[in-house]
Amino acid sequence: MQWILVIPLKPLARAKSRLADTAAEGLRPGLALAFAQDTVAAALACAAVRDVAVVTDDTLAGRELAALGAHIVTGEPAGGLNAALAHGSSAVRSRTPESAVAALNADLPALRPQELARVLEAAAEFARAFLPDAAAIGTTLLAAAPGRELLPTFGTDSRARHRASGAMELRLNGVDSVRQDVDTGDDLRAALALGVGPRTAAMAAHLLIPGQPGG
User: Fold this and answer.
1) In a domain, 209, yes or no
2) Which of 1, 64, 65, 96 could form a disulfide with 124 if both were Cys (CB 3.0 to 4.6 A apart)?
């Protein structure tokens, strides 16, 4: 099964505020863009992915991610992450009504195409399925089979809420790169330990991160 991924990205100026203890305010927009670029590049390199649709109204992010091959969905509605995902999923399904759609976080800088393929292969067995994040509280991927609505409930405790919504929880080993999103300095250290993409690595070189070379 081939999937279209929907990746939401808020304006870079407002992104990654929880990294304030690790990255100065002036660096956080660039770091958020690097996360998204490495995420999109890895997703597009995945054999199970047909296309990537990024939902954003950020001009710089849209230009840079389109250059990688992503389809940019503008007109992001108010209402936060779930509204953006519903908007993106609707745009995807208007072009390809029978597509399998999966929402993917934009902050997976260690994402590996082969691990993403394993997750999507497992998700294809169910009408809706999700992958918990590394903290086992949130969600990094939510998938919907052709003809099924995505019904995202991302946010606080989204693992429990996606499970309660009827989505099947995917319990896979060896897919750490798909689970390791980055919200905090500890998350970034964990992603760096897994091995991040080139853009995140270049940005991280400007940071003094305890436990990393030069930190």
Assistant:
1) no
2) 1
